[in-house]
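We treat protein structure as text, and this decision shapes the records that our systems exchange. We quote a single record here, exactly as it is kept in our systems:
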Amino acid sequence: MGDFYQNGIITTLHNLIDRPVSDIEAELKQFSKQRPMALMLPSLFSELEGPALAAIIDEIAKVDYIDEIIIGLDQADEAQYRYALKFFSRLPQRHRVLWNDGPRLQAIDARLQKRGLSPEEPGKGRNVWYCLGFIQASGRAEAIALHDCDILTYDRRLLAQLFYPVANPAFNYEFCKGYYARVADGKINGRVSRLLVTPLIRALKKILGGSDYLEYLDSYRYPLSGEFSMRMDVLNDLRIPSDWGLEIGVLSEMYRNYSTNRLCQVDIADVYDHKHQSLSAADDSSGLSKMSIDISKAIFRKLATNGVVFNSETFRTIKATYYRVALDFVDSYRADAVMNGLDLDLHREEQAVELFAQNIVKAGNMFLENPMETPFIPSWNRVGSAEPTLLADMLAAVEADNEEFAE
């Protein structure tokens, strides 16, 4: 049950009452006549064998307002792709599985590589980018939503509330970010958002003074959520990062392209839990350690494009200020946990803060050493200009894969 408080410079849509999900879905069914909807599911093959995705698909199968479902499948050979087609076949909605490692889509990727337009880094960003391209090629949707495939606490209310702000023709929102409390199994989760992103933004506001961009980021209650929805016209100019900066990068793109009164966030779940990344304190190329570096770089990069000048001394100041702010947050979260009867490991929390403080400096040094780094994948507008037939060829390749390998 949420409060009604509007904080920051974007609209917050709350879950004020336990409205029956059937009522929301009935409205969405009406909206779909004017604004057809598509759902994107970026997935690793391993998630088909995990504990979450089968239950997610069972819930989505009950939904009657979605016109098309696009599943981006990574790290799958031919036998695994055939298995995936069978796995998703119980979906009654029109759906397509993009075999990103298959020869047809690899040929599409090779064409993009020759033009210098292919995503350079494998991962969720690349998967999402190809799904977005297919949705444009398909041309069936006016409203699009995306969520992760490892949500252990999934129910279809999450999907309905995520779609509603961009599907309702009476609303003018172009983009909506889902948020939720990261509480599950008697613990407060979401360390990177709680202990890195918010304290870093607050530290930067102290150091840099007034910044519309930082105020904007600070308006999001859970900026790292993997759930968001958008209108179709957002896709053309959208540039997304291929690394762990995906979520912050998308928010930055929305800030660049739209007035904040066209953006919102919505409460989509009372309880949310998914696969947890390890801290990886000894390896900054994986886990939460790499995530913290990529996210920090994404924020520094965006501030630099807004005219902020960084140097080594600046990043040392940021680290010191962040560290104090983050420790104050740990105290706040500890009190919140105790009052709610939840567990919070103080030692584990402060270990994360210490690692994130080190990684803020690492991210700053990486930025200074390579300020021209461009992790953004080109927009599909640019791809269409360089390769006018590529989207149609991609659509044909996906259709051919789905037809040839379906049993």
In short: The chain has a mean pLDDT of 92. The two ends are 45 Å apart (CA to CA). Residues 312-339 form the longest helix (28 residues). Residues 214 and 258 are 16 Å apart (CA to CA).
